Each structure stands twice: as structure tokens, then as C-alpha cells.
Amino acid sequence: MLQINTILFFLLCVAIGNAQEKNEVEKRVKKGEVHERAIEWLNDAFEKKRKTKWYLQTDGEKEVFEAKLKHKNHLHSVEFDLDGNVRNVEVLIDENELEREVLKVILTYLKANYTKFSISKIQIQYTGEGENLEDVIDEDEFEDITINYEIEFYGKSDTEDELWEGLFDAKGTFLEKRVINLKATDNLDY
Amino acid sequence: MNKRFLIVLFIVSFSVKAQGERFTFGFLPEASLSYKISENYSVTHKIESQNGIYDSNNLNEELEYVHRLTDLQSFISRKLSPFVKAGIGYQYRIEEGENTHRTIQQVSILQRESFYRIGHRIRIDETFYKEAPLLFRARYRIKGQVPLQGLSLDPGEKYLSVSNELIYMTQSSEDDLENRFAVSLGFYFDDKNKFEVGLDYRTDDYLVEDRFRHRLWFKLGYYKSL
User: Fold this and answer.
1) Domains located in chain A, CATH noted
2) With a cut of 0.95, is the ipTM above it?
3) What is the mean pLDDT of each run of 10 residues along chain B (226 residues)?
4) A21 CB within 8 Å of a chain B CB
């Protein structure tokens, strides 16, 4: 009985482990394939017509549309569900654009958990209702908006050695993380 | 496009010939198959074939097809970190005269930048001959990969890859250098299927007097992983 429990526990760990991996696949789609509501929202929020690339993103479980465009010199990724409802907006920033206090908290977490680490990508993630998200873009207003930081970092500890995608809250407190699986390197290795 | 290419070929071969150096041109198709066997271990099989169609040493100067060699390689690699892999491999080479065995050891390092990536490969190999002494080579290759459509490489998009490899070799205390420079257009169908087509320009016999050689290969490579 103990053995079966051990096996079940092991299988469960594997299953959870897999669920925590990031295996996003993006497929370029034409504007015409995207729900009209999404295009309307984007036009309202970003006003001026911009060069936008549309993607259908799958992580194995859910499918979303993602629009990528440049706005105020920053790369913006806007996520919509398949019905065209906006879900979140992510803005790519540099480490020095991050508020010092927030960065301090994040670095404290990394130092405490990893013997070796390095941050490779920081995105501010705004989540909220469509109207409020629109205000973030065109009015710089953050009413009823959840701000999180999505940070890609390499972290090595005694037990783990991976590239991670970590989610931190507005104050920089760690929320969750998952392993990022890198693209195949067969053409670089052989 | 075709015409221009032939003109370039002609000019290169002519200028090379003027210096008494050898120039060859041919096709180099290759295909690799990779798969994971555990969390940290993966296996790669590769087949590569060199097919000559032009050789400035030919007296009549006509294009002539020659199968030069075919390599069959197998590697087993271990992931040391998300960016570093160490592998050992074996190659069986089918060639006129004598088929040879080669053992290979390599370390590959992935360098990720914001929108492109660079692969560094450090490799040593030993080739065994029936009659001749062991050939030892040490090589370093740097290969960059840049997306051609946007900032990230997504399925269905194209990329450019540029690589250079320097090879030092020694056999019974005679040593030599070879350089390989390659530019390819890559098709990223998805993460399990990539196709690269381009030119691979190889020069060798740097340290041997009066034997400098230029080889230009039209390279086609398919990279499949399971």
C-alpha cells in the first residue's frame, strides 16, 4: 500500500510539474481571423493606426489571441480571449525602468532562493476590465487595475537549474513561477 | 539569380586558379533527427553527404558529378544547464578508398539575446584509419540565428543563420587549419522542424605550402526533433 501511495505521489508530482511548464506556441494569424471586438478595442485604446501583428497563442490548455505592437517606444502585447474580450496588457521594460523599491524586493527574493541568477526580460502586466485597461493605455490611469510583473530569469539553486518565468505583484512580492522550455538547439549543436 | 551565381562561381574559380589553388563546388545535403531519452539526455542521428560537381583540378574543366563521401553520425548529449550541453558521438564515414571511424566529444553553449541567439560549439574529434596514424581535430563554431520577421521566431517564419568554424587538425605531427564560413536562410516550420538552405565556404591547407584549397558547398539541411 505504501508503495502504491509513493507511486501515486510521484505521478502526481510529475503531473503538477508538467502543468508548471511554459510551452507556449504562437502562430501568426491574419487580422481577419481575429474577433472584431478585439480589433475595435485595440483601435480605441491605441487610437492611431499601428502596425500590429496578431498571433494565436496556445499553451496546451487555453487558446488566446495576442496582438503585438509598439507604443511609446515599448513593445506591448495585448491578450484577448477567443470572443475578443481583452484580458491583459503586457509592456516590455528595461530593468532600470522598474521602480527601485520593487526591484529591491524582487532581487531579495532571487538572492534568497538561488545561488546564481540573472534577469533576462521584464514585462509589466496590467489586468482588468476592458474600459479600465483602455485608460491605462490612453490616459495613464490605473483605476481598478491589477499590476503584476512577469519576469523571465535564469535561476540555479542546489536542486533546480532552469530558466523561469516568475510572476511578482505590484510591490515585487513573489507569486508563482514556471519553467520556460527553450527552443530546440539542434541546428546550433550539430 | 542563377546567372549571377554562375558568374560569381566562375570569378572565384578563375581567381583561385590564377594563384594555382584548388577550388571545388558541390552539394551538401544533411538531415538530423533528435529525441529525448530522459529529462537530461538526448540522442541525435545525422546523415550528411558531400557531392562534388566541379573541381578545378579536373583537366577538362567540365562539370562532373562525384559522390565524395557520406557521414553517418550518432550523438548522446547531457544537459548540464538550460544553456549548456555536453555530448559524445560516433561517426562512420563512407568514402572511396577507406571507410573511417571517428569519435567526437563536444560542448555546446547557447547564448540568448533579446531577439537573436548564438550557439557556441567546442568540439574535438579523432579519426581512425587502417594504415595512416590517428587524425586529431579541435574545433570551435559560432552560429548566430536571427529572425527575419519580427523580433521573435515563431512557427512559419524565416530566419537567417550565419556561422563560422575554425578547425585545427594534427596527424603524425603535421598540423593544419581549416575554416568554414556559412550563411543560410532558415525555415522555422515549428520547433520540431527546421530547414536551412545556404552556402558553406570552406578553406583548408593553410599551413601546407602550395596546397591551399577552397571548397564551396550548396548546403541543404533538415533538422527534425521528436
Assistant:
1) 23-87 (3.10.450), 94-190 (3.10.450)
2) no
3) 62 59 91 94 96 82 84 96 95 93 97 90 96 95 91 87 96 92 95 95 86 92 95
4) no
